[in-house]
Request: fold
Amino acid sequence: MKKNLIPAIALFIFASCNNDPKPDAPKPTEKETPKTEAAAAVNPNVTDWMSWEGGIDVAGVTDASYKMPNVIFHVANMVNTPVGKAPSGMILYRPDTLQPPVVMGFVSSNKIVGDYFGPKIFAGTPFEKAPTVISTFDIKYDANGATAKVVAGGHTFECTMGDLGKPYLINRAMGSPMPFYQQGVERASGKTVLKVDGKEVKIIIPPVGLGGGPGAVLSVNGVYAR
Reply:
């Protein structure tokens, strides 16, 4: 947390000279005692958290008339939690919004880790009671781009990202818009392709995604906490 420092203000009062031919010795300079008021750093206590490296995050719609994303692909090469670590993330794939999702839930190679996310991190969101879908992951990323292949619920999801922007630091407060603190390093994706079962999904990616950042982003590393 940043400290707001208020600089001390020094006030100098100089004595005036009288009209005698021989001036009096100057009066002592009066100087206000410097005062520094610094707001104490606020470090919120947290009880639940997850951290990760190699996150590939995409959220969008397949029809411009949809008000909410019907495609979410948020996965990470490794996710750490108080109950363990494993490649994990969340997937929502609902191409027909009049039908149940094809795949919806937390994806992980470890059920204990997957079961942690809903009630601990995403409480108060539509994903709070989402199931865990045991999945396999193959995620790679470097300075030029990223790829992710996740097999979940009998379907294969493949995402590629390129034309990455420069890395930048994030520090989003709880409620902006998600119900947890967010910190980390992101790189916006200039070109994103998502395929399901080998077929490209035409999605409209909004400029701002679910987490408050770009709708398609390589999340190099980060933390959610609440």
